[in-house]
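FORM 7B: Structural annotation worksheet

SECTION A. Query
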Amino acid sequence: MNNHLTLSGTVIRTKQLNSPSGINHTVITVEHKSQRYEAELLRNVYCIIQVILSGPRFNSVTDKLQAGVQVEVEGFLSLQQGRNGQNRLVLHAENVELKT
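SECTION B. Predicted structure
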């Protein structure tokens, strides 16, 4: 099975977290807007997704990830359960490229 996603969009929020084991996490919220053809009709596409960047390999880019920055993120999707019990998909980054 394959689980790989590439998504481009605009950073709308950023926050820094440290796990109990001492791993640095940067959580960014990315907003994506585009148009795609589906069944030969042009469709507006819109989504907002949280992206998690974990570990020191992202240290060189995390300070540049501010609201309004264009990014392209590659990674894998995983289910995350919030404190309220709600499930959501999050994108765990394997590569982040700044586009602005």
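SECTION C. Observations
The chain has one helix and five strands. Residues 59-62 form the longest helix (4 residues).

SECTION D. Sign-off
Analyst initials: ____
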